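Technical annex, item 7. During the second reporting period the consortium partners agreed on a shared format for inverse folding records so that results from different sites could be compared directly. Each record opens with the tokenized structure and is followed by the designed sequence. A conforming record, contributed by the partner at site C, is shown below for reference.
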């Protein structure tokens, strides 16, 4: 197949009129312009950032970083101290509640003992014991006033 020069020119025109060829040519032009401007940009950057100023600027960045880090550490300490104080306060409340409940139980035991030593009837003691056990079963099903699960059956232990 023999081609003449006009056929070759027509094929070249088709290729050079395509978008990908235009894009490649455009990229080349922009790269060339940027490279031509590079020496001027370096001179301008050096004027704006003289080499003597670089150590001072670096120290400024270091100071800023240290200051921010110290602030973050202080914030973390404050938060941790707040959490510790909250935990201590709650623990003190739980201990106080336990003491109050223990004192109430102790007083009930003393009351039962006093009645027993005074010779009161076992029927009175039995009713009182049943009431006490019912209250104890109720408090065992609760933790800090909140139900702690399915209630278990309690033995009343009444005797005739």
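Designed sequence (site C submission):
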């Amino acid at each position: 197949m023999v081609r003449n020069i006009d056929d070759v020119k027509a094929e070249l025109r088709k290729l050079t009129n395509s978008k990908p060829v235009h894009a490649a040519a455009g990229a080349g032009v922009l790269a060339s312009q940027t490279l031509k401007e590079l020496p001027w940009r370096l001179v301008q950057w050096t004027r704006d950032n003289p080499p003597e100023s670089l150590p001072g600027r670096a120290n400024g960045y270091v100071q800023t970083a240290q200051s921010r880090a110290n602030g973050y550490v202080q914030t973390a300490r404050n938060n941790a101290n707040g959490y510790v104080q909250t935990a201590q306060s709650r623990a003190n409340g739980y201990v106080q509640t336990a003491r109050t409940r223990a004192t109430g139980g102790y007083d009930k035991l003393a009351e039962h003992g006093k009645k027993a030593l005074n010779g009161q009837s076992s029927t009175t003691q039995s009713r009182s014991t049943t009431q006490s056990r019912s209250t104890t079963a109720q408090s065992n099903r609760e933790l800090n006033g909140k139900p702690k699960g399915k209630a278990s059956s309690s033995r009343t232990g009444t005797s005739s």
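The first strand starts at residue 142 and ends at 143. Residues 114 and 156 are 22 Å apart (CA to CA). All partners now use this format for quarterly exchanges.
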